[in-house]
Amino acid sequence: MNDMSDAKTVTDAKKRYSAGVMKYAQMGYWEPDYTPKDTDIIALFRITPQEGVDPVEAAAAVAGESSTATWTVVWTDRLTACGKYRAKAYRVDPVPNSTGEFFAYIAYDLDLFEGGSIANLTASIIGNVFGFKPLKALRLEDMRLPVAYVKTFQGPATGIVVERERLNVYGRPLLGATVKPKLGLSGRNYGRVVYEALKGGLDFTKDDENINSQPFMHWRDRFLYCMEAVSRASAATGEVKGTYLNVTAGTMEEMYARAEFAKSLGSVIVMIDLVIGYTAIQSMAKWARDNDMILHLHRAGHSTYTRQRSHGVSFRVIAKWMRLAGVDHLHAGTVVGKLEGDPATTKGYYDIFREERNPMALENGIFFDQDWASLNKMMPVASGGIHAGQMHQLLTYLGEDVVLQFGGGTIGHPQGIQAGATANRVALEAMVFARNAGRDIWNEGPDILRDAARTCTPLQQALEVWKDVSFDYVSTDAPDYAPTASVAM
Amino acid sequence: MSSTAPVPRPQSVDLTAACEASSVRDILQDLDRSLIGLAPVKARIRETAALLLVDRARRELGLASAPPTLHMSFTGNPGTGKTTVALRMADLLHRLGYVRKGHLVTVTRDDLVGQYIGHTAPKTKEALKKAMGGVLFIDEAYYLYRPENERDYGQEAIEILLQVMENNRDDLVVILAGYADRMDRFFASNPGFRSRIAHHIDFPDYSDAELLQIAQTMLDAQGYALDGPARAAMAEYVTARRQQPHFANARSLRNALDRARLRQASRLFEAGRGPLDAQALSTLTEPDIRASRVFRGGLDIDRPSA
Amino acid sequence: MRLRQGQFSFLPDLTDQDIHAQAQYAIDQGWAVSVEVTDDPHPRNTYWEMWGHPMFDNPDAAAVVFEVNECRKMHGGKYIRVIAFDSTPGWESIRMSFIVNRPADEPGFRLVRQEGEGRSLRYSIESYALREPEGRRYA
User: Where is the Ribulose bisphosphate carboxylase small subunit domain (chain C) (predicted)?
Assistant: First the structure.
């Protein structure tokens, strides 16, 4: 691919900086011989050039527009070490099994960025360039964040290890449920759902993304009744319990006030929505670390830019930014539930959340080796259309360090919320027990659940009610590379 | 919590197939090949393996229920292969499914018995726990019992051992080892042990011819050889060494060969003439053997206790 | 009231065979297994009494079952749990925890509410067993 363009960087300074318009590739944004430095940030874009636009020139244009370039030559470049500040497109590959799409690798010098600021990073990488006319579509697929840059971020306020220590829960996924209906419950009724679910066996309940402070339930009412419910459930079971109190609000001042109130009532966790913005998220992460609080992030809104395969930002990139920004929980897909999630792609997300180091794995959509430099691990949250009957699949796909959220699967139980929670907890414990004891849970899962249900009527009922529920749709975001494919670097 | 569904009982068993499946035959053949002499020991192990295979088959058919007692005593003089055979025995028991892991933990009195009150029980339990899933080999077991000192902590270790040997029969096999006569006296004064030990295997001394063969095998493994006169000297050495104190069969041979290699090295070094070829570097000659004090009727200088 | 801490408290009590299977899983992962006992089951009572050191060098879980039973002889009327420590970088924490013994009668916890300003409350929970001094609880 590197020979597909005849563009050569113009090296004669007089020609290079004479006023006028010049191809981006000629301006120095295309360097096929460039070897990225260990400290470079690398971005991988999927580019779809307009008809007749050379992919190399398109890649160079992306490099230019996301770093130093403007539409015309400016002499003031010569007052700077512009060779250093120019982003360098260094490789362009056609996307396998698709026409008109290309993967462009672009390296950025570390000095282009302010440390510890997702806002600054994104202002460059996805700032202007996504509206650039010569491209039909553009998607940021993955990024390699150098250790030197990773170290400028706080990372998850609590992390999986300390979250488990605080909750005193080890060796099994955590269980949660979102209170339903999403909207309309009064504070008093809302707390009832929380109490029943926690007493029945869940570790967490959760506000939904759009529960803030509405006429039917003002936020203080919700917090007060929820904490009564959490404390009662804790006394009834001898366990640490929590409910994600959503502190999302119109201003930082208001969010801090709500978070402080949650803390004063003894909550172990607060929640925010992705729509509050990167800087607000980083501020709340700092607050959470300063106040011994777990920070749950609901990825509200992400599908507007993560879902389309040809345009936007991949969720794996959002996941990387959020690990830097410092949230503890983030939704990441269920594979088997009602929301988007191809198994191989989802594995890639989970690895970004939970591993110390991600080796390149094209079959999981991971394009670069990524070292997390001992940043805490993020707890993935699996939510949306999952139920006890899928426990063996959930444990196999998602592993142990995950919050499984059974909203409908708890509250919709025919014998009530407590019974629903108990069914989920028994199914979970039986499955973990069987896996540890060496059983093949993938194949024997239904038998294991049936056996566990012999001494647990609520589980029996749950298995009966939801026995036929599954969501088999074709995924819109499968990896481009088959598991065996290897791509020469 | 676990509910094991009843498995239908088979009507017949195929011993040959069971033997192949557990690769017991491999172990027995390997034992034959790799251990020189020890014919009675090999025969006893073969019998034991057969017994265990049959016992397992009987339990599969529901003819027997309790797992057999497997604790053993290995008696014989030092250097007669007791530890080596214990390793193979652990492997054999593992392949037959009588122990879960098949490792061997070797201990002596010092590893089991403490110096002060409250010290012994944790030490003994620690050793037993390490050996669980495998075999605990207690060398010179009779030192645990010191009747001359009634406050000796060895008695505490014995009591714990007996208890675990009885209650945790599924978890480990204990092998007590030592000189035959002293083991006999030990069992006579500790009937608890006698009754819990099902298999006694006696390790005879090696014959002169066997020892010479062992010497050859050891040298082969190290890439050395004896020339003709050296071999004759070695044969004489074996006969003479046996008459002297602290004779320890194969172990004495190993020590003798180690010293012969030292002498060969200094001989080559001091001669210091010209380049040496591979053969010169790997041949032990008659003087390397004859320099031993054994030929002068005396105890060999170092390692007097070996 | 049944104390719900640990991985398997919603399942029927574990048999020795079950304990062996779970502890063997931990050992096979390379984790050190430990036995701990308490008469103060408050969910934030982090430090239960250690029944000996974590078992770093025991390849077979029979050693764990053995210690659990030794501990039961002395503390049969208290809570006993088995926990597994993982020393690998990035973890260096507990990876498993399950209860293997509990008192015959579990009185549970009292919720204490302290009224504050407005509608605010401060909550604490107390084990009923803790009304008795250490050593005389669950007698």
Answer: 4-103
